[in-house]
């Protein structure tokens, strides 16, 4: 199978990396976990051995951490850290701008220039180009277009040709992706509008930090299995990174809490 063969390579191209991910993420949920992860580890070891290649130190550490852990879970970012992927493409998974959820939210605001709630092809292309320039890397436009198309294929789970906040958040390490915790507490449109009106206590059309604090406390109380009230300040800081000078409008909060954004 092509994806398994790619694991034998000294350097993996962006297109091959996408094939590998697509092959092992068999349920398409955006993560390798359980049998998917153990299968990947087993076939990685076999492929390297067949090619006469030792596991790299990064691969060895990865195998030690996840090889016998049936509860393990990794995202695209973690996979990119261990596979010998072409350098320029790899930068997208190692960029300093996306090390934390708060940084990610601020980056999202910058590139969702039309506040549509989506990053579309040209916006994504600008984002990737800026990341490369900050790393002092220059690539031609055809290569940049190729990377943009691959990133869209990789993260666009509903195939609508654009990236939603939760889709692009796959660029974050699993442990940093707080949006995963909010996935199961999202509301239908009617319920979300009712909640926004309730917590916008002064009726000025936006939620401020204190109003968000009250909303999150109630959400944590109602969803103890998914949300940890001890992380309240982190949730608040990350969500407020989407605000416009402390004003969190309906459209931005909907990205986190409305299921109809998906």
Topology, please?
Layout: H1 2-6, H2 14-24, E1 32-33, H3 34-50, H4 57-66, E2 73-74, H5 76-82, H6 87-90, H7 101-111, E3 118-119, H8 121-134, H9 141-155, E4 163-164, H10 165-168, H11 179-182, H12 189-199, E5 206-207, H13 209-222, H14 232-240, E6 248-249, H15 250-257
Antiparallel strand pairs: 1-2, 3-4, 5-6
Helix pairs in contact: 2-9, 8-9, 13-14
Would you kindly provide a brief summary of this structure?
One of its GO terms (cellular component) is dendritic spine. The protein is mainly α. It has 15 helices and six strands.
Following the backbone from N to C, one meets helices and strands in this order, namely HHEHHEHHHEHHEHHHEHHEH
- Based on CA atoms alone, the radius of gyration comes out at 20 Å
Q: Tell me, what's the shape?
A: globular
Determine the strand fraction and express it as a percent band.
under 5%
Summed up, the helix count is: 15
Helix coverage percent:
40-55%
Structural class: mainly alpha
Low-pLDDT runs of 5+ residues are none
Counting DSSP E segments of at least 2 residues, the number of strands comes to: 6
Distance between the termini: 33 Å
């Amino acid at each position: 199978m092509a994806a398994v063969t790619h694991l034998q390579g000294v350097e993996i191209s962006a297109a091959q990396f996408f094939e590998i991910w697509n092959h092992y993420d068999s349920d398409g949920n955006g993560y390798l976990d359980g049998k998917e992860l153990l299968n990947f580890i087993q076939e990685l070891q076999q492929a390297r051995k067949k090619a006469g290649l030792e596991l790299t130190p990064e691969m060895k550490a990865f195998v030690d951490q996840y090889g016998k852990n049936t509860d393990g879970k990794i995202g695209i970012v973690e996979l990119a850290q261990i596979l010998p992927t072409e350098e320029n493409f790899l930068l997208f998974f190692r960029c300093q701008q996306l090390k934390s959820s708060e940084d990610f939210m601020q980056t999202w605001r910058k590139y969702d220039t039309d506040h549509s709630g989506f990053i579309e092809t040209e916006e994504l292309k600008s984002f990737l180009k800026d990341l490369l320039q900050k790393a002092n890397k220059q690539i031609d436009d055809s290569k940049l277009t190729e990377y943009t198309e691959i990133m869209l294929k990789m993260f666009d789970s509903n195939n609508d040709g654009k990236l939603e906040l939760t889709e692009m958040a796959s660029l974050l390490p699993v442990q940093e992706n707080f949006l995963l915790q909010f996935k199961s507490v999202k509301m239908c449109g009617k319920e979300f509008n009712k909640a926004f009106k309730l917590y916008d206590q002064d009726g000025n059309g936006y939620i401020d930090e204190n109003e968000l604090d009250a909303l999150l406390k109630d959400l944590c109380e109602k969803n103890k299995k998914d949300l940890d009230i001890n992380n309240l300040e982190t949730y608040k800081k990350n969500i407020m990174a989407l605000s416009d000078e402390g004003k969190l409008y309906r459209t931005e909060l909907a990205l986190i809490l409305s299921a109809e954004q998906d």
